User: Which sequence fits this backbone?
């Protein structure tokens, strides 16, 4: 027996544009098959020179970032990682501060877990200090 309500098809670029890159996570409506409290997935399309507005600190999730195309640099305390070939990836754990910069036009896929409420870009005094201008606007958290 197949339940079509559990099957969802889409296109990453236009779907991501509607929610600042995020395709799946706790911030999607609970009736949406892309709602998840376990994981968040982002399709990031970054023009050359695009960079994170400020460092992400006090991270409470684990993250995996995979380069689809282009060249993408991640900064960690005391370490720089450059993803230069399709399929290059980096994984970092909870508590690891980070920032990023698109050295060339780049497309990256980010997977974070768990999907935790409490992060917002439009709250500059957010005590969790995890902000990204690319996270969904109008959502209660990231």
Assistant:
């Amino acid at each position: 027996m197949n339940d079509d309500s559990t099957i969802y098809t889409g296109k990453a670029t236009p779907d991501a544009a509607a929610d600042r890159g995020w395709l799946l996570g706790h911030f999607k409506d609970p009736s949406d098959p892309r709602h998840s409290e376990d994981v968040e997935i982002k399709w990031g399309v970054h023009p050359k020179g695009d960079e994170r507005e400020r460092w992400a600190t006090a991270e409470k999730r684990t993250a995996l970032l995979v380069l689809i195309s282009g060249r993408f640099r991640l900064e960690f305390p005391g370490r720089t990682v450059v993803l230069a070939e399709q399929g290059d990836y980096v994984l970092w754990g909870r508590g690891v501060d980070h920032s990023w910069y698109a050295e060339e036009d780049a497309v990256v896929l980010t997977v974070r877990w768990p999907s935790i409420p409490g992060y917002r870009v439009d709250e500059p005094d957010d005590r969790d200090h995890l902000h990204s201008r690319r996270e969904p606007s109008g959502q209660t958290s990231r």
